[in-house]
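Notes to self after the call with IL:
- keep both proteins in one doc
- input above output, always
- annotate only the second one for now

Protein 1:
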Amino acid sequence: MSQTGTSVLIADDHPVILKGFRTIMEDAGVETIHEATTIVEAYRSFYRLRPAVVIADLTFGDQGISGLSLIRRIRTLEGRTRILAFSMHDDPTIIARALESGATGYVLKDASTDEFLKAFDHVRIGKSYLDHEIALRVAMLNANVQPSPLASLTEREFQVLALLKDGHSYQGIADTLTMKYKTVVNLCSTIRQKLGARNFADLIRIALKAVS
């Protein structure tokens, strides 16, 4: 399918992935391709350029699943924008959160080039896209079949949990997310209660298992 005239913004903090995206998009006939490597740069680029399609990773550096907030802000600013979330996260709860935030489609980073282009073609014309297996897993969430322990967490709690998993201290999390130390402590206490963690070590164990 010809992509002539379609403008695309690719938001990912890995140079190799950005280069790969650009090559795939150019081979598919996309003429206007913009790149961003941070959440702030991505939002500013979108605000200034208003591309038709945004391809956004969910994880930027040590900021946890911050791509969810980017998707939500873009969708709030321009409801017609097509957004394809492209991530390593295959947890159905995270995928559902991305769709709830405003993603038009979701594809995993280990997908083939053909699958990625299929997802892009769907999203470009405003059609939703999920791999069949992923769609079934997301649907199972609503049927309460083996619900993920992450289901009850807010977006901010997701970010905190992901940073804990990566070995950040409370102060490190506070600095990364521009929060007060006490707020981080309170959030971690809330996360422990929601996930049924007995202590801090148990919370880390759950984080390592749940946030892959």
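Protein 2 (the one to annotate):
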Amino acid sequence: MHSLIFHANLQYAEIPKKEIERVINKSYKPTIATLLKEDIPFALNITGFSIQYLPKELIKGIKDGIESNLIEITGTSYSHAILPLLSLNRVKEQIEMDVRMKEDTLEVKPISFWPPELAYDPILPAILKDLNFEYVFVDGEALLFSNYMNTAIKNFEIPYIKLIKASYGQRKYLNYFLGLRQLRRSLSYVFGGKALVKGVKNIVGIPVWQPVNITLMLSLGHFPFMNERKAARWLSSIRDIMLYGTDIEFFGYMPFAGKKIKISTLIKFIKSNNINITLPSQLPMSGREFYLKTSSWAPDKSLLIWKEDEDNRRLNMLISGIKGDNAFMAENSDARGWEPLPERRLDAFKAIYEEWRKEYE
């Protein structure tokens, strides 16, 4: 028994705003419609901000999927903010705004929560429990690496680092070949099922495993030395996992490491391997308990991607005094992102400027 979750964010750092309609038509519509047609249950994590761009027929399809228990809508932060970078008041307001949007538009109140970029701190589960959430998606590797209690003193080795280097063109073929070995080894520590996450208040965590995501997508894209049969063999010993847990845009719109993948290939993989798919909240408990430290699903599990760039430092310093709708735009993580477009970053700076100007009008 496995599960699927598709993350949808129309403030995507690397996608131009002029492409939003094309993203919906090439990815969101066919992916969601095909899964529903095939009666495959899945979780949909879409930001409240993104919902405003969805056409009426897609919203109706999503609502029908919710009604038929094929779609589990998750909560998240309204504008895809990195929650550990915000004040606690703003964390609560981001989550509440997202919930209101989903209640008003999709007529559902989420019980599971997806932190953007799986960025987490130990206070987050307390806020989620206060807001009646039952589950939180977490990075599986971050759970295991949280025993490194002070990474300023002791760092962990990034798994499958050679695959990451290959994706950036560094000794591409050698690192890819060696990276597959690292990837295979990294699957050995993946465990199935949900886990109890110890925080200020304890909450049930649903682990998302990057090695599983990478194995699946390399096979669906028919990368060298990878195919569906090999991926099925590698994953065969692991039960009750999130089989897919990343961006919906990788199906139909955005290439994965240069290759476009259709949702039909994922469905074929599921059916040919007789995989039983259930909603994430219905996965069984593993019996494991973890303390999860402040982290994200970045390769090194840190928040550095959204903090260290000089523009990002400036944005993070300035957002503390921003309020209202301008605050949501300023807090959007995709202004910081992995490799954000200038227009995405400028949206945040403009929101800060416009709020600052109000003080003088």
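Annotation: The chain has a mean pLDDT of 92. The radius of gyration is 20 Å.
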